[in-house]
Design goal:
The complex is a heterodimer of chains A (244) and B (105). Chain A is built from 6 helices and 6 strands; from the N terminus they run E-H-E-E-E-H-E-E-H-H-H-H. By secondary structure, chain A is α+β, with helices and mostly antiparallel strands. Chain A has 2 domains: 95 residues, no CATH class; 128 residues, no CATH class. In chain A, the strands form 2 sheets. In chain A, strands 1-3-2 form a 3-stranded antiparallel β-sheet. The longest helix of chain A has 40 residues. The termini of chain A are close together. Chain B is mainly alpha-helical and 105 residues long. Chain B has a single domain, classed as Orthogonal Bundle (Arc Repressor Mutant, subunit A). Helix content of chain B is 59%, strand content 10%. Chain B has 4 helices and 3 strands, in the order H-E-H-H-E-E-H. In chain B, a hairpin with a 7-residue loop joins strand 2 and strand 3. The chains are: A alpha+beta (244), B mainly alpha (105). The interface between A and B is medium-sized, with 24 and 20 residues. Chain B: It comes from Oceanobacillus neutriphilus. Chain B: This is PadR family transcriptional regulator. Chain A: Pfam families: DUF2812. Chain A: Keywords: Membrane, Transmembrane, Transmembrane helix.
Chain lengths: 244, 105
């Protein structure tokens, strides 16, 4: 019987290397990654073997996949899974890394970050509109807009943070260590500024309410998502077993 | 286009292998063979650079009939860029060689 389990990623922009190390250790224990699943990986039970893993970010157009994957296969890297422009490869230990120079490694992080930055900017404008609407409206409409605005704010912050983290990876590759650590600090700094502005511009009670909803949202959302995925995975496995 | 734009080492090796039509893996093998395995290009770096050279129009798709192994060749422009870079690299080699000789004497 096919035995699978789910492993959550800590966010590739923040822990790509750690994730790849973890996948290697799990392969040694006989759990081999076979697919991506929302914010994580699906592992399949098999025989224990030593595999190393590498990731590439690239949006491939139609007709480009064959050449791309053949190039990797010829170099000893077999394709495991792809999702949303992220490609996971596996090889025997000792196989040379998929990136051989710093220039192209830096480009890898840049190309994964650019679409996220575009998304963050457009979402930022929507968020600003929602806040504007929430402040000017009242009653039920106000509650709806307020809730939407909070959710979108958290979303923009997460995407922007991820994009900046990828840029920090790029800077680190290029040897700009100070810029890289600054990049990783951006979000906490921005949050601090946002909180200060909130307390000065709007009344304190209102600001505390916004802040509290953001903190609760920020903590609860990942926990809920994690819970739902594990639950979904267990249920779909059960139904699969029942079918047999 | 800036002709004086400096090529990275990897770009230089790949362009040097594309004076004749070759596919990606053939380029990688040729570079490894030539340097006795000391220099090797990873597949992700290879793919990134091929795409870059195509947009710069320094190489072009020579034969795309085998979708797994498309072959590429330098354009006229690419040949000029490569020749310029060879000149630059020769100057640096000369500097090193004369310097080494002076010490020996």
């Amino acid at each position: 019987m096919r035995q699978t389990k789910y492993m959550m990623s800590d966010g590739l922009a923040f822990s790509e290397e750690k994730d790849m190390e973890k996948l290697r250790r799990l392969s040694l224990k006989g759990w081999h990654v076979c697919d991506f699943k929302f914010m994580g990986y699906i592992l399949e039970k098999g025989e224990s073997s030593d595999y190393i893993y590498n990731l590439d970010y690239r949006s491939l157009e139609e007709g480009e996949e064959e050449e791309y994957f053949d190039l990797f296969l010829s170099s000893g890297w077999s394709h495991v899974a792809s999702e949303a422009g992220i490609h996971l490869f596996r090889a025997e230990p000792g196989t040379k890394s998929i990136y051989s120079d710093l220039d192209t490694t830096a480009e890898k992080y840049k190309s994964s970050s650019d679409p996220m930055i575009k998304m963050a900017i457009s979402l930022f404008f929507i968020t600003a509109l929602l806040w504007g609407g929430a402040i000017m409206s009242s009653g039920v409409l106000h509650s709806i807009l307020f809730t939407a605005a909070v959710i979108f704010s958290v979303l923009v912050a997460i995407i922007a943070w991820t994009a900046i983290a990828q840029y920090s990876n790029k800077w680190k590759t290029e040897g700009k260590h100070r810029l890289a650590s600054l990049g990783k600090m951006t979000l906490p700094l921005l949050l601090l500024i946002a909180v200060i502005i909130m307390f000065f511009v709007i009344e304190t009670g209102y600001a505390i309410r916004i802040l509290a909803s953001m903190i609760i949202g920020g903590i609860a959302l990942p926990i809920i998502i994690r819970g739902i995925i594990s639950l979904h995975h267990i249920i779909s496995k059960k139904t699969e077993e029942n079918k047999r | 286009m800036k002709k004086s734009e400096h090529l990275t080492d990897s770009m230089f090796y790949i362009m040097a292998a594309l004076t004749k039509p070759r596919h990606g893996y053939a380029i990688m093998s040729l570079i490894e063979e030539t340097t006795g395995g000391i220099i090797s290009i990873g597949p992700a770096s290879m793919y990134t650079i091929i795409k870059k050279l195509l947009t710069q129009e320094w190489i072009y798709l020579h034969d795309g009939s085998d979708s797994r192994r498309k072959t590429y060749l330098l354009t006229e422009n690419g040949r000029e860029v490569l020749a310029e870079d060879v000149k630059l690299r020769k100057q640096m080699i000369q500097l090193a060689e004369t310097g080494l000789k002076e010490v020996e004497e």
